[in-house]
Every structure is written in structure tokens, then in C-alpha cells.
Design goal:
By secondary structure, the chain is an alpha/beta fold. It has two domains: about 10-250 and about 450-475, Aldehyde Dehydrogenase, Chain A, domain 1 (3-Layer(aba) Sandwich), CATH 3.40.605.10; about 255-435, Aldehyde Dehydrogenase, Chain A, domain 2. Helix content is about 40%, strand content about 20%. Strands 14-15-16-13-12-18-19 form a seven-stranded mixed β-sheet, with helices on both faces. A six-stranded mixed β-sheet has the order 9-8-7-10-11-21, with helices on both faces. A three-stranded antiparallel β-sheet has the order 5-6-22, with no helix packed on it. The structure holds NADP nicotinamide-adenine-dinucleotide phosphate (NAP). NADP nicotinamide-adenine-dinucleotide phosphate binds near residues 146, 149, 234, 250 and 407.
């Protein structure tokens, strides 16, 4: 079924438009495809289609919407190999990780298919005889879904699955670097028989222009955005004049805490996933390693041994663990953060500071990180480990909370009481205890503080796409 689509998908039709932009392979910059650059008229047409399709889609029984989501998931799984290949080409990530992303992305469609079947209401005991209080969940309306480049499939299905399950229609604006994944998902919707206008995808070269137009469009009732905290704030502000509902999945600054009683082998295994998945380009990437003094040396040594085994290269080549960073700006940013840390006294204990000229960044391990260094505050988004020693448990937990972000934290300790104290004390939406990967469709994903508003996945994932309607009735 799956073929490479390069045109926008608007109201059930593939629209070539008048302008196109190039999608390039992050490994060598080779052109992958020339994609439609949706102009303002096309974005408006996509919104109009979503508005027109909304009444019939919301009226469709939940189980029928769920069946279409299941069909999309089945098609996604059936074409997993080719979808993974496409992801490697536009995003650069290692093939095994691209394959894992396809599975993860499909899991949201399956999960929300089930939620569509279980969109229960409530009957609440009333105070007066003869009254009946009924509470139902109503779809919010046409939604704008704006997604980043680091997980082109999963960041979209996590939104689209919930929106479609709830009875909302959608206009999707993928990142400039990775529009092909979103166009593949539009094909899955088309092939499954999702009615025209329910799913629309408008790729664009200028994200601020296209995203801004979409957020401001009068027909849009809700905006769900995943991306940087900086842009998330702009999106939230742009949604204010019409008081549109907003969900924000923003940047993280995850602490990875290793306490003195931790199983160090497990901690290193978890660190390899939490740090190096997607070459470090993940909102849930471990950004600050905080290690209790008695095990700092042993943990660092074991982590270096494991890091030395990682292979960097073209994502599609066998045995490659880390693909290139997505673009030149990302490579320059990682080099800047390492240079800043070194200039402020960090020690390079493994690897070499990247030069910023190549997107193929090799892992680096730095010791002696301090809060004065930019990488303590900013997302590194690259394969760089920065380690800071903590005097004791209380110091480690205080360091973990020394950030405006609050998406996820990782803690390694065998002691149940320490686990409970860490889970209670750390300010973040998600915590992995002796686990380096917490993302899964049935759990609520999302942050607190400046990491965002709302939750995706889980039974709570529908909340952002529904409003409660209360009816007081005398039958
Ligand atoms: P980004 O630059 O903020 O872009 C995200 C999306 O917003 C892209 O589609 C972008 O289009 C679009 N956009 C840019 N300016 C806009 C504007 N003014 N109005 C509306 N939309 C606009 O983020 P990114 O670099 O793609 O992604 C990396 C960031 O995403 C990191 O901070 C990461 O932590 C975060 N992230 C968070 C989660 C989470 O669940 N919390 C998950 C994944 C990633 P263009 O790309 O075309 O500019």
C-alpha cells in the first residue's frame, strides 16, 4: 500500500500546490524528496475541510472510529519495514530505532481505538427527586496538530489517535525536516477509509508562517503542539485571542540520578537508552547525570566502557547505533555546549569535543559539570554525557530539581525507601526508577513546569480532546 507521497493531503485529495521544498538525508544532505510547501490558501482549505468533516465524524459511533484507527495501525505494522526505511532517510536515526518508532507509533492508534470504544460518561446522583445529572464527553472540534522532527511518526499518532478517537478532525503540520512521515500517516488514513476532510496534512518550509496561520485559523478549536519550549510559548500566546484549548509537549532537561546503592550494571544499561536513543535527540533524553560520590568513579568507568562500543554512521548501515544529528544547526549547538562546559572547567573523560562542522557527532563523556555551564540549563540534544557528583541523596534530589523543566527524571537505587522519597521529591511529570525508558501508550506522557501542559497516551489522553457536557434532566 505504502508509496512515497510528496503532496499535501487536503480534504481527501493529494494537492501539489505551486511551491515545493527539499527534504534532505541528514547523513549526506542528499535530496530525498521535493514536498509541497502549503501556502496560506492551502492551509485555509485544510482547516475548512476539517470544519466541514467534523459533524459527521463526531456523529460516527466511537467503536466505528476505533475500527478505522485499528485498520490504520494494522497497515502501519504491515508496512513497518518500508516506513522505518523512510524514517531513516528523512530523520537519520539508526534503523533499529526507526523500526521501534514505527511499532511505538502504531501502539497509539491501537490504544486510542480502544479508548474510542470506552468514551464513557457519568450519571451523577442528583439532590432532588426526579432530576437526573448526565455528564458526557464531547469532542472539542477541529484540531491543529503541530509536530517536531525527532519522532516523525510517534509524535503524530500520539495526537492523531486521541483526536480521532474523541471525534475531532485534524490538520497536521509536520516539521520542515520530516514531512514524509506525516504524509505516510495520511496515506494510512486514506487507505483505511477515514472520510475525506477528517485528516489533513500540510507540510511547509516555514514552520512559523504555516504553524502561525493554523493556530490563528478561526475554524480551529484546539492546538496540540510538540516541540521546543520557546516555540510552545509562542503557540500558547497565539491561541489566547480566541481562547483555543492548548496542549503543549515541550522540552525536557532530565536528571539521571545514580545513588550509592544502585545496581551499576542496570544504571549503565538504562543510561545507554536514556542518553543515546535517537543520538540524544529526544525530549526525554538524560541531560544531567547526577551520581552519588561513592559510586561516581565506578559508574563513570562502566559508562565509558559501554559508550566506547557505540558506532556512529549512516542510520541504514548494519551495526550503527547513532545516526547523524538532524541538521547543521543541531551539530553546531552540541559543539557550543561542549566547548562552553570545557571552558568552564569540565573534563573530557571520553571522546573528543565535536567541531560543530559534521552532523556525525561521536559520543563524549564530560565530568565535573556545574550549574554555571549552559548544558546544565539547556537541552543538549546530542550524544554528550555530563556528570556531576552529589554529596548524598538529599543533594542529588536537590540537584535534580534545579531546572525550569519537569518532563522526566531517572533514578537508580535498590532501596525501596529511597525510591519512594525520590518519586515524591522530584518535580517532573514522569519518573523512571531503575528504568531508562518510560514512554508507553498506556501511561500518561507529559511534563510540569516549563515542559508543558496536558498529557498524551493513557486513558487521560482523551481529556485534551474532549469537553465535559453536563445535562440536568427531568426525564
Ligand atoms: P520546534 O522548533 O519548536 O518546532 C516544532 C514544530 O513547530 C515544527 O513543526 C515547527 O515547524 C513548528 N513551528 C515553528 N515555529 C512555529 C510557530 N511560530 N508557530 C507554530 N508552529 C511553529 O521544535 P523541534 O526542533 O522540531 O523539536 C525539538 C524540540 O521538541 C525539543 O525541544 C524537544 O524536547 C521537543 N520535544 C518534546 C516532546 C514532548 O513530548 N515533550 C517530544 C518530542 C520533542 P518547522 O520545523 O518547520 O520550523
Amino acid at each position: 500500500m505504502f508509496e512515497l507521497r510528496r503532496d499535501a493531503y487536503v480534504n481527501g485529495r493529494w494537492e501539489a500546490g505551486t511551491k515545493r521544498f527539499a527534504v534532505r538525508d541528514p547523513y549526506d544532505g542528499a535530496p530525498v524528496a521535493e514536498v509541497t510547501d502549503a501556502d496560506d490558501a492551502m492551509i485555509d482549505a485544510a482547516v475548512a475541510a476539517a470544519v466541514e468533516a467534523f459533524p459527521a465524524w463526531r456523529a460516527k459511533p466511537g467503536p466505528a472510529r476505533g475500527r478505522l484507527l485499528r485498520a490504520m495501525a494494522a497497515a502501519m505494522e504491515a508496512d513497518a519495514a518500508r516506513l522505518a526505511e523512510l524514517c531513516v532517510r528523512e530523520n537519520g536515526k539508526a534503523m533499529a530505532q526507526a523500526a521501534a518508532e514505527v511499532t511505538y507509533a502504531a501502539s497509539f492508534l491501537v490504544w486510542f481505538a480502544g479508548e474510542a470504544e470506552r468514551m464513557y460518561g457519568e450519571i451523577v446522583p442528583a439532590s432532588q427527586v426526579g432530576q437526573r445529572i448526565e455528564v458526557t464527553r464531547e469532542p472539542v472540534g477541529p484540531c491543529a496538530l503541530i509536530t517536531p522532527w525527532n519522532f516523525p511518526y510517534a509524535m503524530l499518532t500520539r495526537k492523531l489517535g486521541a483526536a480521532l478517537a474523541a471525534g475531532c478532525t485534524v490538520v497536521c503540520k509536520p516539521a520542515e525536516q520530516t514531512p514524509l512521515g506525516a504524509l505516510a500517516i495520511a496515506q494510512l488514513a486514506e487507505a483505511a477509509g477515514v472520510p475525506e476532510g477528517v485528516v489533513n496534512v500540510v507540510p511547509a518550509a516555514d514552520g512559523a508562517r504555516a504553524g502561525g496561520r493554523l493556530v490563528a485559523a478561526p475554524g480551529i478549536r484546539k492546538v496540540s503542539f510538540t516541540g521546543s519550549t520557546e516555540v510552545g510559548k509562542l503557540v500558547a500566546a497565539a491561541a489566547v485571542p480566541d481562547l483555543k484549548r492548548v496542549s503543549l509537549e515541550l522540552g525536557g532537561n532530565a536528571p539521571f540520578v545514580v545513588l550509592a546503592d544502585a545496581d551499576l550494571e542496570a544504571a549503565v544499561a538504562g543510561a545507554m537508552i536514556a542518553k543515546f536513543r535517537n543520538a540524544g535527540q529526544s525530549c526525554v533524553a538524560a541531560n544531567r547525570f547526577i551520581v552519588e560520590a561513592p559510586v561516581a568513579e565506578a559508574f563513570t568507568g562502566k559508562l565509558i566502557e559501554a559508550t566506547a562500543r557505540l558506532r556512529v554512521g549512516r542510520g541504514s548501515d548494519a551495526g550503527v547505533d547513532l545516526g547523524p544529528l538532524v541538521d547543521d544547526a543541531s551539530a553546531r549547538k552540541v559543539a557550543r555546549l561542549v566547548a562552553d562546559a570545557v571552558s568552564r572547567g569540565a573534563l573530557v573523560v571520553y571522546g573528543e569535543p565535536p567541531d560543530g562542522a559534521s552532523r556525525l557527532v561521536k559520543p563524549v563523556v564530560l565530568a565535573g559539570i556545574t550549574p554555571a555551564m549552559a548544558m546544565w540549563r539547556e537541552e543538549i540534544f546530542g550524544p554528550v554525557v555530563g556528570i556531576r557528583v552529589a554529596a548524598d541523596e538529599a543533594d542529588a534530589l536537590a540537584q535534580a530539581n534545579d531546572t525550569d523543566a519537569g518532563l522526566v527524571a531517572y533514578v537508580y537505587t535498590r532501596d525501596g525507601a529511597r525510591q519512594a522519597r525520590a518519586a515524591a521529591a522530584i518535580e517532573s511529570g514522569m519518573i523512571g526508577i531503575n528504568e531508562g525508558l518510560v514512554s508507553t501508550a498506556q501511561a500518561p506522557f507529559g511534563g510540569i513546569k516549563q515542559s508543558g501542559i496536558g498529557r498524551e497516551g493513557s486513558r487521560h489522553g482523551l481529556d485534551d480532546y474532549t469537553s465535559l457536557k453536563y445535562v440536568m434532566r427531568r426525564p
